[in-house]
């Protein structure tokens, strides 16, 4: 039996809980580079608790007050700065584009496009996404639907067809192809595409 003081017991528990909290969404064994840092957020509570307990054991009251005030000012300033980035979807994804420069991620351009109200600006970002990744299905389908909305029906329909063909074994592409056919007045083709979507993914309610 290991005997520890109450603070040390709590710190040990926090370290253990930090790793255990990864289990629902990830793995406690880091076999590859972490690409989804948000998965550490639920666990971070335990690390901060352990750090707080350690600091309170190491310093006297005056130093602790200074540390707390400095921490409060720091996180308040960071929150104000980040709120300018997280103001809406457009600012968030444009910030992501800027942070990834010169590397270009087609997902960032797609997400900026889908948060823009101006259809012409949306088209620019969708075309940029496809310039980076010509076979990016979501960008191709969304650009096609946008062109149909703008009246360029044949060009838009062709893009949606290409997007659905890229993922011929998935129902979602044919679902949107059915919508594209319907918006261009091709009802029979719309019904056929919708039936194919439902056949591929019969458990997805959106197919119906």
List the topology elements.
Elements: H1 6-20, H2 41-58, H3 61-85, H4 89-100, H5 106-113, H6 119-132, H7 137-149, H8 153-166, H9 171-183, H10 187-200
Give helix and strand order, one letter per element, not per position.
HHHHHHHHHH
Largest sheet entry? none
Rg, alpha carbons = 25 Å
Helix content: over 70%
Rounded mean pLDDT is 85
The percentage of residues in β strands lies in: under 5%
Low-confidence parts lasting 5 or more residues at pLDDT below 50? Answer: none
List the total number of helices.
Answer: 10
Please give the alpha-carbon distance between the first and last residues.
61 Å
Based on helices, strands and strand pairing, what is the structural class?
Answer: mainly alpha
- Based on CA inertia axes, which overall geometry fits? elongated
Number of strands: 0
